[in-house]
Amino acid sequence: MWQWFTDSIAWMYWTLPSVLFFVALFGSIALMGVWDAISPTPVRKGFLPIPTTRGDRYFIGIISGITIFLVWLGFMGQAFLYAPLGISAAWCVALGLKG
Prior knowledge:
By secondary structure, the chain is mostly helical.
């Protein structure tokens, strides 16, 4: 079983940062599922034009954070990657609180 698993993911060059990122991503999604099962979230409408739950806002935050990084890489290259990190973090916090 383990050999099959390692062969199946051999196409990706796994580094410690990539493993930590995917563990954190899937772990946070699992925790959001448990949190929603324990305490269901009410649907609310903030500055987004659609009513959302906290899981919706989390997903939109992940997708928009990826988009911010890709746009930054497209226009600026790999120069000063802390800027899109700060922009993404600020956007996700605003989205979580007021979205």
